[in-house]
Amino acid sequence: MMRMAGAVGATLMAMVYTSVPAGAQEAVAPAAPPASPPLAAKPAATIGPEQTFLIGVVRQLPEPPPWVAPLQMPPDDLGIAGAELGIRDNLTSGRFLKLDYKLSSEIVPTDGDPLPAVQKLVEAGNRFILLDVPPDALLKIADNYKDRDIVFINVGATDDRLRQKDCRANVFHIAPSRSMLTDALAQFLVTKRWQNWFLMVGRTDNDKLYGEAVKRSAKKFGAKIVAEKTWDYGPDARATAQSEVPRGTQVGEYDLLIVADELGEFGDILPYNTWLPRPIAGTQGLMALSWHPTMENWGASQLQSRFFKQSKRMMQPLDFQMWQGVFAVGSASLKTRNSDPAKIEAQLLSPDYDLPVFKGVAASFRSWDHQLRQPILLTHATNTVTLSPQAGFLHQTSPLDTLGFDRPETLCKFQ
Amino acid sequence: MKRQMLLSTGLATLAGLMLADALPAEASPRAFVTNERDHTMSVVDMSTLKVTNTIKTGRRPRGIIASPDGKLIYVCASDDNRVEVYDAATLKLVKTLRSGPDPELFVLHPSGNPLYIANEDDNMVTVVNVENNDLIAEIPVGVEPEGMGISPDGKYMVNTSETTNMAHVVDTSNNEIIENILVDSRPRIAEFSKDGKQLWVSAEVGGTVAVIDPATWKIVKKISFKIPGVADDAIQPVGVRITKDGSKAFIALGPANRVAVVNAKTLEVEKYLLVGQRVWQLGFTPDEKFLLSTNGNSNDISVIDVADEKVTKSVTVGRLPWGVVVVP
After folding, report:
1. What is the pTM of this model?
2. Which residues of A374-391 are buried (b: 16+ CB within 10 A; e: fewer)?
3. Check: CATH 3.40.710.10 for A179-289?
4. For a Cys-Cys bond, which of A4, A19, A228, B15 suits A73, CB 3.0-4.6 Å?
5. Does the beta carbon of A38 lie under 8 angstroms from any beta carbon of chain B?
6. CB of A45 within 8 Å of any CB in chain B?
């Protein structure tokens, strides 16, 4: 963290990455962790693998926020480090069955087009491709490979529409949808009987989508939006927060302020500056996330410490989602022992497929929209408060389907 | 000795009381329970079912076993990266052994030596000579090694790797893996029947217990569980214990708060016993009249009458009780 903070100006603003050169990717391949060398005495190491799984990852750098708190400096290898750990874990397991895994990653600049990067990976033989790209780019990529046997795994985009009317048969979603996140939060707040919400929505389109998801969740679980405002105090209001936020938050009585600020422009300056002493939740404050460094139950501390050992930093949600993407292919591969994408895809969707994700219950894919159903963390900066679904939200098949779009609500029609 | 130990652990105020209780207790069997969050080990007198001593251990004690003669207690102090050896009579720390990083569970060779330790953070099983603390071998296994079982004749050691979802069978004569058996998600425990003809492997997230035939290392049956009113994904098998006569097996079902009683001949589930919350590990008394379960979230152990298949009592121990062993 400290090292990161020191390099602030240089790294963040100069995020003009080009594709990671081939040489750099090679460094990933001999990923056998130093702690667990290959089984030298076993014939597996000398005969060579029976099946090789080529996994690619394309990450388009998001637009940088107008300012970044030192503690939230995104590391250069955000996400990719998780995929690398996934490869290590897959190799440790796969060597017993003579299965091999290789990762190739492509970083695309903010204003670039990720499709050529995907094409490059496909030409190099990658048949499993993790995508952290904006929703329109994701659709373009998926449609471009509609008739090819490529499994795309969305590890970044939270857009609800990708699970609903814009769903695609060749895309699996590891990243939770916005609705999963806001449903997770809503269940907890309703359990606490903090049911009157003041919704503060940021200026970007994504913030509005998050705000819509919050409203949908409020309706679903019986909470009430008693006030709603759009943040219009400019991109960087740090200097004037103490005078502006109290004025901007005089909306009468409410239990809790829900903030929709995906870029991180203003959410963190709201706590302690509001007119009334009220907690903050949403994209800041009590956050709904797939993962957090404070997660330690259900064996999570083992994954955290493996990650820390590898990358010398904490595991962030995107790291976890990329780890899950690679691990999902790996765990399916132990069953198929075959790198045919169609076989892996069938395994991912098989009723007995389960993905242990260190959250107490197994994750699995929804057949109707290919969304990974998994518990969602509610966490503040230094503690994971709880995981949703909350006890008491019952479901006829899986309580996990109380988060996001359940079968009866789906608008997804795979072509 | 005893006084000195207790004083040093900051329990001075209780020392007098405990000494009075502890001394006559030497004669009856005692249960040792590791309390993961308290960094202690509770000693329970099995005749009175009272906690007689609370011993400060290394940080995050989890796996606990006894030497074949019951005189030594081995504890995995996970966050201190060592195995601690206690004298079961004096309750004194006798020595510490190397363990490799983050030891969680271990198993002793039936002869009492060596010790096979699962290193959860390191994808390794460490083999240590308990006499001289020599490192005999490091065996690379799958991701997050956990469960450790050994065949009654000592020929095969079995380790389960939680994230690789395999049971790795190791030939103890050369410490080579001879077989990798794919089981359901998050395998936690490997336990041989006393006649060596069955190997039971519990899969926590998969919700099943695989019964494996060691003659072929093939799965004979996967036992699954159904409890009315309990969600399927709350049924998470962890601890497994089989009676010496091979008639019954007991399976701890985690957050289902039940211990399943399984007919070990027919491999059918016969009964579910309600115990404390998030039941984890199990341990028989030496005479097998009772079985104890550690209940992590209710901070107690349940006492199960093996013949009657009934829960008779619960005893409060420390925070997050993890493992249990009972010695004569």
Report:
1. 0.85
2. bbbbbbbeeebebbbbbe
3. no
4. A4
5. yes
6. no
